Amino acid sequence: MKLQRKTRRALALGALAVSGALALTACGSDDTGTSGGDSAATAKAGAIDCGDAKGQLQASGSSAQKNAIDAWVRQYSAACKDVQLNYNPTGSGAGVTAFLQGQTAFAGSDSALDAEEIAESKKTACTDGGQAIDLPMVVGPIGVGYNVPGVDNLVLDAPTLAKIFDSKITNWNDKAIAELNPDAKLPDLKIQAFHRSDESGTTDNFTKYLSAAAPDDWKYEPGKSWEAKGGQSASGSSGVAQQVAQTSGAISYMELSYVKDGMKSVKIKTGAAEPVEATTENATKSISEAKVVGTGKDLALELNYTPSAEGAYPITLVTYEIVCDKGNKAESLPAVKSFLSYIASEDGQGLLADAGYAPVPAEIITKVRSTVSSLS
């Protein structure tokens, strides 16, 4: 399994080299969900401490957080004009690999580092006895987006989702779906289930949910790489979203901000009395039960994929920014600390709701801010 993972990462890095970095720069008065246009942007930009930050800051990884990164960079670039931040949304697996190989200053990942990756970071990315650590910055519900003509309200539970994505349920008028949706006019239409082709933290979290909530129906090991047979694949959150939007009968999992352009989001039946809608507010109710399980400065979280509280949405992810606790490259350290300090700040976290995400709970983001200030 480790060999397969490394092979997939090598292929992903090849794609990274070909595609190049996506430069995210200031977009003038582009709306980030705040009111007041340029004056609001200027006010927020004025609160950013650029310090000695300058030069290019290379980063890559999670595509799920791209819309959050876009919003942050618009504000940060307006304040810190001597920094050009290039974030390439290659997927969590490729982003972690690029960071471990010293190609980027930080990585975005929707899964916390495993023990093998932390050990590798001590030999490669981090010097002076440092190691890679996880800093939770973005909370997001994983929406199950679907495109079924005539069906605007769809409820599914974990066992049914597991069977759909394992090619055990193949038509939208299947009895199991009909029982969950007695008032829906389900068409006689083939299900087109899409999954991620790249190593993805979104896949990791989605399969952890299926494994935890439907253990009798999902027999695959959770992970960044898709293991189930059948279905179709696409690269990145934007890739699967595009396929669902243009394919009648399609369904896939993606960060909620990608559920748009003709798609609807599935409501999830949990142990609560009512099915739960995918919203940032409902994701926050679930994430509030998360526990810090990392050691030292590492702030990796353990999530609860089977909440029973009313309104707690069970399929969530946390995107981590991955950096070295010490031994970061001297030329990029000021920009890394400046940017991460901003996105962990009250202003930075305040942009997340308008971008379709949820802020990190207060007791956790306070620890993140302290850790960022101590990076060396």
What does this structure look like?
Pfam families: PBP_like_2 (PF12849). This is Phosphate-binding protein. Keywords: Phosphate transport, Signal, Transport. The radius of gyration is 20 Å and the shape is elongated. With 376 residues, it is α/β, with parallel strands linked by helices. It folds into two domains: 200 residues, D-Maltodextrin-Binding Protein, domain 2, CATH 3.40.190.10; 146 residues, D-Maltodextrin-Binding Protein, domain 2. The strands form three sheets. Strands 1, 2, 3, 4, 6, 7, 8, 9 and 13 form a nine-stranded mixed β-sheet that branches. A two-stranded parallel sheet has the order 5-10. Strands 11-12 form a two-stranded antiparallel ribbon. The N terminus is likely disordered. α2 packs across α3.
Report mean pLDDT, rounded to a whole number: 89
CATH arch. level architecture of the largest domain: 3-Layer(aba) Sandwich
| Structural shape | elongated
Number of structural units classed as domains: 2
Number of helices: 13
Classify the fold: give the CATH topology of the largest domain.
D-Maltodextrin-Binding Protein, domain 2
Distance between the termini: 34 Å
Largest sheet: 9 strands, mixed
The level-1 CATH class of the largest domain: Alpha Beta
The sequence of SSEs as H and E is HHEHEHEHEEHHEHEHEEEHEEEHHH
The CATH superfamily title of the largest domain: Periplasmic binding protein-like II
Say how many strands there are: 13
Poorly predicted residue ranges: 1-45
C-alpha Rg (nearest Å): 20 Å
Strand content: 15-25%
What structural class do you assign from the helix and strand content? alpha/beta
What share of residues is helical?
25-40%
